[in-house]
Amino acid sequence: MRLRTIGAVAVIAVFLPPLLMLVAGSLREPGLPPPPGPQLVPDPLSTEGYTRAVDLGGLLRAGLNSTIVAVIAVPASVLVASLAGFAMTQVPRWLTNAVVVASLAALAAPATALLVPRFALFRTLGLTDTLAPLIAPALLATSPLYPLVFYLAFRAIPADLYDACRLEDLSPLRTWWRVAMPLVRPVTAAVAALTFVLTWSNFLDPLVYVYDRDLFTLPLALRSLSTLDPTNFPVFLAGAVLTTIPPLVVFALAQRHALRHFHLHQYRET
After folding, report:
1. Cβ atoms of 39 and 21 closer than 8 Å
2. Which of 67, 221, 197, 216 has the alpha carbon at shortest distance from 130?
């Protein structure tokens, strides 16, 4: 418990000051020259930066686009990753090892190396300048890491439980859904949170595939705000605050779910 408290304090000490400076900067009045140094309490306080950020950056439309992508991509990614991870526990050992090696090799490959062939593929299919290329990676679990995470979680389940499911004549699909998935809920919450943040903050893919301003996601909208002059920098910071709130909420909910499951598991053991 003490180590966990120390770790939480260390994380807060690292991440809280930049967040405070971000919020403080967003509350400065736009049009004023930048302060000579850090200013935690701007004088005067103003929320005009948020209004201008929404109007100038089109954050409402961009936020809707980002939400559409995340709402589709996150469940799809979790579904594919969990199915792949569970399948790796059911196939022969040599095949599992081959999939693990291939996944690690895919993780080692830089994302930019696949940018040109992916662009050519989506252009041939006529999917450029749509949200489809932003959602398509979810059909491959978004990242090769996530099936490996689920695989390790499913492998930690006692093999006797899987044998009992076979004796009860449960199909692999029903075993995955009714037995395995409820036992790895913290892992599901963690993968969902990581996928959401990766999807929400994705800048490169929208920059490459999306040209219509009405299809811009929040990272592209923030890029347009960053071109404002320094006296309007509070507008950009206000947009950054609005963009940062959803990932913070998702991480808080995922952490709460994981801790509740952990305490419930401890209670059952006692």
Report:
1. no
2. 216
Give dist(CA 180, CA 209) in Å, integer. 37
Q: What is the rounded CA–CA span in Å between residue 81 and residue 77?
A: 6
- Domain ranges within the chain, ordered by starting residue: 2-269
What is the model's pTM?
Answer: 0.87
- Determine the length of the chain: 270
- pLDDT tens-digit readout, 131-176: 999 999 999 888 999 999 999 999 999 988 998 998 888 899 999 9
Q: Are 135 and 195 in contact (CB under 8 A)?
A: no
The CATH superfamily of 2-269 is: MetI-like (1.10.3720.10)
Distance CA 176, CA 83 (A): 8
% helix, strand, coil for the chain, step of 5:
80, 0, 20
What tokens does 7 get? 């770790």
Instruction: Provide DSSP, 19-88.
Output: HHHHHHHHTSPTTSPPPSS--SS-SS---HHHHHHHHHHTHHHHHHHHHHHHHHHHHHHHHHHHHHHHHH
